[in-house]
Specification:
Elements (H helix, E strand, L loop, with lengths): L1 H23 L11 E4 L2 E5 L5 H6 L7 E8 L2 E5 L2 H9 L13 H4 L8 E8 L2 E5 L2 H8 L2 H16 L4 H9 L10 H12 L1
Antiparallel strand pairs: 1-2, 3-4, 5-6
Helix pairs in contact: 5-8
Length: 194
């Protein structure tokens, strides 16, 4: 009996841990889903505390300070300076990363996943975040095509949905017809650099 109870408790704990992204990354409101994480005692911190305003004003990735923050649409944003916080508070939508801060290259395949503060690009005044240098390089191979695909999947499938469910769907049972693996994309990037 004790063994069965232990197994049941272990399964319940695993299920709750797996469900965390269901809640944290999918708040109700205009911004859902988002690349948010529970840190520093805050339920949803955008992009692990990166100062979004710094991308626009300093053209670099800067970590925000948890004591300089704002909450917008149930999401906490950190800033490196009070001035950046004031700019954000005045126009919060202006500083939002595309695709909820998820990897723009992942969104080309309808997958809201990843997104590293130090892998990014400003394109026509908008902030695009990537899951790493390889994802960024792959996206930049054909920006108009990739942006059109990412915009399509974001607007038709991902925006307003649950990131965990969408990610599971597009990585398992319903991959897009033009899906490319990481190895295939790396080969295309390498060929383009020759």
């Amino acid at each position: 009996m004790k063994r069965a109870a232990l197994v049941l408790m272990s399964c319940a704990a695993f299920a709750l841990a797996a469900c965390a992204p269901l809640v944290v990354q999918s708040p109700s409101g205009k911004l859902t889903p988002v690349n948010a994480h529970a840190i520093d005692g805050n339920e949803r911190v955008m992009m692990k505390g990166a100062d979004l305003v710094a991308y626009f004003t300093q053209n670099k990735d800067v970590q925000g300070n948890p004591s300089i923050n704002s909450t917008f649409e149930k999401i906490t944003f950190y800033f490196s300076t009070a001035e950046n916080k004031a700019l954000f508070d005045k126009e919060p939508m202006k500083y939002q990363p595309q695709y909820g801060g998820y990897c723009a290259n992942g969104m080309v395949y309808g997958i809201p996943w990843g997104g590293d503060a130090d892998s990014w690009r400003m394109i026509e005044g908008k902030l695009y975040i990537f899951g790493g240098q390889g994802s960024r390089d792959a996206f930049l191979l054909d920006v108009p095509k990739n942006r059109a695909l990412a915009d399509k999947y974001w607007s038709q499938e991902v925006a307003g949905s649950n990131a965990f469910i969408q990610r599971t769907k597009r990585t398992t049972v319903a991959r897009v017809a033009h899906y490319k693996s990481g190895a295939e994309l790396a080969a295309e990037v390498a060929a383009a650099k020759k």
